[in-house]
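tool=predict chain=A
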Amino acid sequence: MRFAARALVQAWWFELVLPRFGMARLAARGRIRRLQKLARRFHDLAADLGGLMIKVGQFLSSRLDILPPEITSELEGLQDEVAPESLAAIVAQVERELGIPLDRAFSSFESEPIAAASLGQAHRARLSPGIAADLGFENVVVKVLRPGIEQIVEVDLAALRRVGRWLSRVRLVNRRADAPALVEEFAATSLAEIDYRTEAGNVERFANDFANDPRVGTPTVVFERSARRVLTLSDVTAIKITDVAALLAAGIDPNAVAGELARATFEQIFVAGFFHADPHPGNIFVTPGGEGGFSLTYIDFGMMGEIPDDLRSGLQQFIFAVAARDARGWVVATQRLGVLLPSADTVELERAITALFDRFGGMGVAELTRIDPRELEQFALQFSELVRTLPFQLPENYLLLVRTISLISGVTSALNRDFNMWDAVDPFARTLLNGGGASTLRSVGREGIAILSALARLPQRVDALATRLDRGELAVRSPEVEQRLRLLDGSVRRATSAVLFAALLIGGIVLRSSDEVLSWVLLGASALPLLHVVLPWRLR
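tool=predict ok
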């Protein structure tokens, strides 16, 4: 809690207060150094606390696409290096859950874990001969929850809930996201992660979704050796997806792996509606062989996301608009998904997205980083009001989806800095539009009905519009002008507060020698207009 409080105060001071006093350049000058120091402190804190804090660090360390390497490098150790539990504690946990001694449950069990994660750790083992003969394999990986992890998660969630309440009081945040609701969504998925029976069901469902896809693989669940806190899976260990040197040594093109990862992610989100929500590099292997020379093998299915049909239909509409560079379709899709704020100026937004598609559409991350900053600045100035207000919000059921897309973007950038996600979106959108399943046909059918319904109502609406014109009842609104007037009004109010603050401050100082009581009253009263100048997002 102390760390979160200090981080929020630091962000408030350098990113909001100093720029309001004309010191934006001073604040920007040391931003990377401040964030690097903050990342280093969080690394130490997360390694000490464990639990859900590790997952936060894993997420940030994978954001190679938007965070500079100076910051992600500070958090990389959290990806694979977590202190393991003692063997005695793990053996006791396994025997307690399975109800039989370890030497009866497995013919061998390695003492050193192959991975120690935030919530549990994994050991290689061999199945007893009878079960191995029935299943056709003997090498397995046994996942064991850390003893006492339930209590740690409970404390972590209590802390995150409090931070969520803090953020809900900041207008800059609460107008774009319901922070407490986002925390509750994260809490629900985290609690599901500490029940391996849920994960076993997730593995089965994911495997069924991709049963006919040779490029996507999963481990096999050994139910006879699994329980709530123990999960036994076939050993599918292969090349870590971001190990570019190992991929090249195996004759696998990293760029092809990035494209296949993007394609598999789109399939999960837009077609299956059931996606892996924790796809950091430690949870995806590249297995050589098979059709096309390799396959992607996913592990750790504790955190999964599910998309209902109506949301999936909206996401499909969104991806069609992106692939077609259709600004109007993009705006309609974001409205339908609930991402656009109700107060958004859609006309100005459509104009900005059109310009964005025309100039930057189709560029990869590396290309964008090579653009002349003056060109980006000119674009920002052209749409200064829109950029400043950013009319978007994060609905509560989008947390896992945003997390997944962010992690995948980071992994593809690690595989190939020049990888272009647009190249993966275009063919996938065409496949989807040309018959990507019954859900797509239903979606197209619904869109067709909506269009026909709108056409049927069109004559009546035109007649109503003509009637209002005849009566002089038609009002013309300009959201851009209204926004500028609101900004001007706010500026006048803050200027008035600044003058009042200066008057009270000077009056208090002048009266210090003659009337100390009145002097202190004036100095104390000057704090209110000062707060209005410094904290306008709360007091307006």
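The CA atoms of residues 325 and 361 lie 7 Å apart. DSSP finds 28 helices and eleven strands in the chain.
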